[in-house]
């Protein structure tokens, strides 16, 4: 592998990682929305608690994948690094929200869930390609 072929592969590699990040962010936002739905089910049905807890674990895994995808956009591909900070914050706040939920501190858990959804949508608007008329 020569230096010229390595440089030629960089844009394609960055593009592939960016597509992966976009897919993961969409999945992350959908999982956050499902958490809101299962939170409502938690209040109205007996199986809601188990669904919400399972969704929370899945959300934590997705947040880790989101962070890894954001890092891969930056370092091997040389893409923008701005996605990493918000991905790391989403992961950290997901862990905090999970702990607060398990300890039944709903007064902070609920607003933090809304904040997580808003941050997920913000990240989604940042990673999606801009369309110009």
Automatic annotation (TrEMBL):
Name of the molecule in the record: Integral membrane protein
TM region positions: 21-43, 55-75, 82-102, 108-128
Top-level taxonomic group: Bacteria
Alphabetic keyword roster: Membrane, Transmembrane, Transmembrane helix
Organism encoding this protein: Nonomuraea deserti
């Amino acid at each position: 592998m020569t230096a010229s072929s390595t440089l030629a592969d960089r844009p394609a590699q960055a593009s592939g990682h960016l597509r992966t990040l976009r897919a993961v962010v969409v999945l992350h936002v959908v999982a956050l929305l499902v958490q809101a739905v299962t939170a409502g089910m938690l209040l109205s049905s007996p199986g809601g608690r188990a669904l919400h807890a399972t969704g929370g674990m899945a959300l934590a895994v997705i947040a880790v994948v989101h962070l890894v995808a954001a890092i891969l956009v930056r370092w091997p591909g040389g893409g923008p690094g701005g996605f990493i900070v918000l991905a790391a914050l989403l992961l950290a706040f997901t862990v905090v929200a999970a702990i607060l939920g398990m300890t039944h501190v709903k007064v902070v858990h609920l607003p933090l869930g809304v904040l997580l959804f808003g941050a997920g949508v913000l990240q989604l608007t940042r990673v999606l390609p801009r369309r110009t008329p």
